Amino acid sequence: MKRHAPSAERNREPLLPVLREVLPAQGTVLELASGTGQHAVFFARALPGLTWQPTDVDPTALASIEAWRQEEGLPNLRAPLALDARAEPWPVERADAIVAINLVHISPWEACQGLLRGAGRVLAPGAPLVLYGAYFIEGETPAPSNVAFDASLRERDPSWGVRELGAVTAEARRHGLERERVIEMPSNNLTVVFRARAG
């Protein structure tokens, strides 16, 4: 049941210092599209002041997350929840932060819209939404690796693809989220931090 993704092993170490900086010291972090569960275990262990709530839409992923959770036995790692970002309502009404790693490009645009709409509902003012993945940036020549990655994603599913950061930012604003920071990461990825607006 327990699955393993090499990409999760690669990106977790660069992500950790960013999360230490932008996440609250305490509270509940809602992770969307937790995949294999490797990130949930790693970050829950590294950030013991936070309660980590993993989710996924795929039953196979949920089983893998639970297998990792059972093996590790971390007190601050909750059992995974089935959550489709497009659904309303979500099974979680409030969170102190939301993290989504490699969700925006490996899903339809409607999932990104649902993620941002849901984040606007469940995050308190000032709470962060942290997105990690590949993006195209308007006015900049894209990295050849991201162009190839986009093509490979669209071959797998025409509704998938590397998104324009400006389009994601504009959609976020519609749901009360303001972009705070864009952090360059290894392999031409970005970590994008949004904050929920007051009111």
Summarize the structure.
The chain is α/β, with parallel strands linked by helices and 199 residues long.
Note down, in words, how this protein is organized:
InterPro entries: DUF938, SAM-dependent_MTases_sf. GO terms for molecular function: methyltransferase activity. Keywords: Methyltransferase, Transferase. This protein has 199 residues and is an alpha/beta fold. A 7-stranded mixed β-sheet has the order 3-2-1-4-5-9-8, sandwiched between helices. α1 packs parallel to α2. The chain has one domain: Rossmann fold (3-Layer(aba) Sandwich), CATH 3.40.50. β1, α2 and β2 form a beta-alpha-beta unit. The mean pLDDT is 95. The protein is 39% helix and 24% strand. It is built from 6 helices and 9 strands. The longest helix has 17 residues.
List keywords for this structure.
two-stranded parallel sheet; SAM-dependent_MTases_sf; methyltransferase activity; globular; alpha/beta; methyltransferase; 6 helices; DUF938
Number of strands: 9
Q: Measured on Cα atoms, how large is the radius of gyration?
A: 16 Å
Helical fraction: 25-40%
The helix/strand order is HEHEHEEHEEHEHEE
Named CATH topology: Rossmann fold
CATH superfamily: Vaccinia Virus protein VP39
List the helices and strands and how they pair.
Elements: H1 6-22, E1 27-32, H2 38-46, E2 50-56, H3 59-72, E3 81-82, E4 97-101, H4 109-122, E5 128-133, E6 135-136, H5 144-156, E7 163-164, H6 165-174, E8 177-185, E9 189-196
Helix pairs in contact: 1-2, 4-6
Keywords: Methyltransferase, Transferase
InterPro entries: DUF938, SAM-dependent_MTases_sf
GO molecular function: methyltransferase activity
